[in-house]
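[stage:ingest] chain + small molecule (iron/sulfur cluster)
[stage:ingest] validated
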Amino acid sequence: MHLNHYIHSFGDQLKARYGCKVHKLALHAGFTCPNRDGSKGIGGCTFCNNASFSPNSRSQPNIVQQVTDGQKVVQLRTGAKKYLAYFQAYTNTYDEVDVLRHRYDSALQQHDVVGLSVGTRPDCVPDEVIELLSEYKAQGHEVWVELGLQSSNDATLERVNRGHGWREYEDAVRRLQQADISICTHLIVGLPGENELHVFASLRDALSLGTNGLKLHPLHVVKGSLLANQWRGGEYIPWSEERYVDIACELIRHTPPAICYHRVTATAARHILLAPVWCEKKWPVMNAITDNLARHGGQGAAIGMMEYSRGERRWN
Ligand code: SF4
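[stage:predict] done
[stage:export] C-alpha cells:
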C-alpha cells in the first residue's frame, strides 16, 4: 500500500515527463520577506519563526554549493537523476529582477537541474517576475510558482497577520495563468478560528480559480512565533493528528485527478517545534493518510458528492 496509488503525486508527474526520478532541492537563496521588513507589514505571519530571520539572511548565498551538496544527499537517499531547484525559504521573488535572475541562473546552470520551483507570497509576483519566469519556460525549463495562499478567508488571513488577502492571490493566479506558468497552491490546515468548513472553502476557491498543484500543511506552533504565545495562553489549540488526517483525506477526495499533490503533510524540526508533537514525524501521518484513502477512496473519489457553490465564497 503506497500513497502514490491513491493520489496524483508531483513526483509521478515529473517521472512520466522526464523518464526518471526528479527531486526538489530545497535552497535558501538569501531573500527576506516583505511582511517583516515593513514594506507589506511588520511582525510577519503569527505562525512564522521569528528567530529564523537572522540579520545575515540577505548575505550572498552560495547557491552552486547548495545545489551540488543537495544533489549528493538526495541522489543517495532517493535515487533521483534530475532535480528541480526549489527556492523555498521566505519570499523568493522579493528582490530586483537582476538579482533574481542571477540566483535562479546559478541553480539552473548546474548539471541535471531541469527547472525551478519558486516559493513566494501572492502579493510578490509583479509582471517583471512573470516575464523572467516565462523566459525560463521558453528555454524549455520546468517552471513552477508555489503560492502561499494558506486560507481563502480574508478574516483568517488578517487574524494571522498574513498581510495579503484573497484578492492578491486571485490577481497573481490570473496573471500567472495568462503566462501559462504552473501554480502550486499552499494551504494550511488548522489556522486559528478555522474549522473543516473553512478548509474546504479554501480548497473550493483555489480549484474554482484554477491551480496545477496543491500542498497541504498542518499548522505548526514553533518557537519564536506569535502563535507560540497564543498557544501558551490557551488561545490556540492545535488540531489532533486524527482530525488532520480526516480533513486532508477529504480534501484529496474532492480534488480532481488532474491536479498533482506536491505534499500532503509537513513536519517541523524538533528543536523549534512546540506543538502539536505529532508534527515531528512524517511517516505515521503519511501512513494514516494512505490507510484512510485506501479504505474510503483516493483522489477525486468524492467529486460531485458535495455541492460546489462557486458563487458563495464566504463561510464566516
Ligand atoms: S510565513 Fe512566510 S510570508 Fe509569513 S512572515 Fe514568514 S516568511 Fe513572510
